[in-house]
């Protein structure tokens, strides 16, 4: 009886496919999870890059339109700019919770021979990240500031004009986690646009000095809420 049972088991191949699947399933699952992580990382990088371009483009357009004087920009305009970025795509990745957006106005020092400097800078986001390309006031006192951007690829402003330079640093939020994520979880993007119309380069104004709008200062690390609250 025992020999007959063993002989039947030896000829029975009904469980072969299940065994093979069980052996290969961990590998298939790992490849699938890694593929999902790669796709998500690419999607997040694309969103961050698009947001950097959106902010820089919109920053180059803001300002009161006037036929008799250069456009003035206000703290409220800057706050609306950041809030618009949150609505356009920042919410989907919690940009201001896990990242930092830095907007800089690159200009030429008045009366100088094309001396570049950062006239003002505004920042939003909880991430503790300082600009990699300069801070407010850089270049104003000495002609050693080449412009903003990667070394050898700096953008520059021209006299009586300004360049809106945006830098975003974002801590990538993994879908799966170790060991299927990436060693460097930082996603970064930069963008720059020349101001589209004549702008008052004296600085950012307050529409109502008696009831000023919040200032998105770069020494404050907070979410978008503090500059959009009533």
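^ Assign residues to that structure.
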């Amino acid at each position: 009886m025992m020999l007959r049972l063993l002989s039947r088991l030896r000829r029975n191949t009904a469980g072969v496919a299940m065994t093979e699947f069980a052996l290969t399933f961990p590998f298939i699952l790992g490849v699938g999870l890694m593929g999902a992580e790669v796709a998500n990382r690419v999607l997040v990088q694309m969103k961050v890059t698009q947001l950097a371009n959106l902010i820089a483009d919109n920053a180059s357009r803001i300002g009161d339109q006037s036929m008799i004087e250069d456009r003035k920009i206000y703290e409220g305009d800057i706050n609306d700019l950041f809030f618009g970025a949150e609505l356009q795509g920042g919410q989907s990745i919690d940009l201001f919770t896990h990242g930092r957006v830095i907007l800089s106005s690159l200009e030429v020092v008045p009366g100088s021979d094309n001396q570049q400097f950062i006239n003002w800078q505004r920042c939003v986001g909880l991430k503790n990240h300082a600009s990699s390309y300069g801070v407010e006031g850089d270049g104003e006192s000495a002609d050693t500031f080449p412009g903003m951007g990667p070394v050898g690829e700096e953008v520059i402003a021209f006299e009586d004009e300004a360049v809106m330079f945006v830098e975003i640093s974002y801590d990538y939020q993994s879908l799966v986690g170790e060991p299927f994520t990436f060693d460097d979880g930082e996603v970064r993007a930069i963008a720059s646009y020349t101001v589209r119309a004549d702008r008052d380069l004296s600085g950012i104004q307050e529409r109502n000095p008696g009831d000023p709008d919040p200032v998105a200062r770069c020494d404050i690390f907070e979410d978008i809420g503090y500059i959009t609250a009533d």
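The longest helix spans residues 16-59.
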